[in-house]
Each structure stands twice: as C-alpha cells, then as structure tokens.
Amino acid sequence: MEQVTIRSWGNSQGIRIPKDILEKLQLKVSDVLDIEIENDSIVLRKQFVHKTFEERLAEFNGEITVCDFDWGEPVGREIL
Q1: 47 in Cβ contact with 33 (< 8 Å)
Q2: Is 27 exposed, middle or buried (0-12, 13-18, 19+ CB in 10 A)?
Q3: Does the keyword rRNA processing apply (predicted)?
Q4: What is the pLDDT of residues 23-61, one digit of tens each?
Q5: Domain 7-59 belongs to what architecture?
Q6: Domain locations along the chain
Q7: Which residues have C-beta within 8 Å of that of residue 64, sequence separation ≥ 6?
Q8: Cys-Cys with 22: which of 27, 42, 58, 66 at CB 3.0–4.6 Å?
Q9: What letter would DSSP give residue 76?
C-alpha cells in the first residue's frame, strides 16, 4: 500500500497520484475520475466512456452472440 499526503493547492487541497498507479490504470493527465465516499473511504473510479461506432466496429470480429435471459415464471397474463 502506498501513502500520499494532502497538500494545499490554491484555495483547495489535493493529492498526487503516483506514476505507477496511473500506468496500471491507464490514466493520463486530464482524465476525469468519479469520486465517492464509501464506508469512511474515498473511492476514485475511472469514468465510464462510451465507445464510438467506429471503435466498436474496429473491435467487431464477425461473431454475434445471443444470450437467453431467464425472466422467471409468469406472474400475470404474459403472452408466451
């Protein structure tokens, strides 16, 4: 576990994230992180970014997968 120190940064406070952690998470300057408080801890998460159509198309390998989903037993007048 690494430790960081809270430092003054203008009128705010901040921490520096070590380079090895940034590399492991593939983060770079200006990336946006989501911040939450969970059980007395500060949690930073990479922001979810939707892929463009071009990015999805580049990853497409020609296979379409279909998965069945079990919705459970009918409980009303569902049409089967």
Answers
A1: yes
A2: middle
A3: no
A4: 999 999 999 999 999 999 999 999 888 889 998 888 888
A5: Ribbon (2.10)
A6: 7-59
A7: none
A8: 27
A9: S
pLDDT at 15 over 70: yes
- The residue assigned the tokens 């037993």 is 73
Comparing CA positions, the residue from 51, 44, 9, 6 lying closest to residue 27 is 44
Cα gap 47→30, rounded to integer Å: 12
Q: How far is CA 5 from CA 25, 30, 36, 56, 80, in A?
A: 20, 21, 19, 40, 60
**d(Cα 78, Cα 6) in Å, to the nearest integer?**
58
Residues 60, 52 contacting (CB under 8 angstroms): no
Lowest mean pLDDT among 7-11, 53-57, 72-76: 72-76
